[in-house]
Specification:
Oligomer: homodimer
Structural class of chain A: mainly alpha
Strand content of chain A: 5-15%
Amino acid sequence: MWTIIVHKEDGVTMEIIRRNTEYSIRALVHLALHPGRDVTAAEIAEAQEIPLEYLQKILQKLTRGGFVGAQRGARGGFYLAKDPEEINLLQVIELMQGKLAMNKCFLGKNGCNRAPKCVLKNNWLQLEQRIAGFLSQITLLDLVEQVREGGRPGGGE
Amino acid sequence: MWTIIVHKEDGVTMEIIRRNTEYSIRALVHLALHPGRDVTAAEIAEAQEIPLEYLQKILQKLTRGGFVGAQRGARGGFYLAKDPEEINLLQVIELMQGKLAMNKCFLGKNGCNRAPKCVLKNNWLQLEQRIAGFLSQITLLDLVEQVREGGRPGGGE
DNA sequence: ATTAATGTGGACTATAATAGTCCACAAAGA
DNA sequence: TCTTTGTGGACTATTATAGTCCACATTAAT
């Protein structure tokens, strides 16, 4: 039976996936939808309604992370550096937001002094792994298919 | 096979449980360890090394949330308003941080326009529920037992 | 070679979320 | 009535996130 908790604040939520990750995914989906050519940051920004300058930073990270390739100069742009099925959500989240973790041990004041035998710690790790496992199963290909099936929600052309 | 992702930033992590929740839990554990009397905010702050003024805010939230009771005036203080096994982690997290969510649908620009039939959305919801289910299974009693078994890591007396 | 189009890297600012502080006041015991 | 305690609201500080700007490197087209 669930205990009812009343939140005074309206719809406050703590979201695990932040905006930079969301932008990243939309950009990756866009690239996946336009294979075989270099797509400029400007085009992606326009189509996906992402601030261009911010998107450039994100694309730089994605480039360094090995998800996309970049071609400089006139007629340059970005392209997927991997097959869509080889890119998964966990990778993108961790690249953009850092490693996902429950938290450090929160019992004890200065960090837990008995981590090795802490049952709770093991629970955290298990949960972390379950979350990670789930996220790593969702690939860019899945996302692209979602977009293709639906009414072109990521559209713009 | 795992793809290796190199993070340039050192140990950057995005933690799900934030400090206010951690403080909350430490406070609740402290109360559970000292049943049958009113414990002042000052005592908890001292024992758990939490800034007093901040802890007071947290205790107010916990009071409004129904987890602890408060007794004003001289010799007043706080006490658990529920049995430790009736308080679970999910409740505390959601009280302090708001409802846990993956995110709103991130495909599409202005929020997803086909949420009802979105497979991904369902995946999110499933994952959210798994996480929630897990967190709701961990009770304050479990945490207290952890502390009792270990070398009094939350100690102070 | 020159020019225009493009990504790169670093520094910078803005906004928002989180953490933390302060104070006047209300309640209750001594 | 005095002291101890929690309450509520406003306030400040710090940090994380989001967003901007610009000088520069690279490349294609002319």
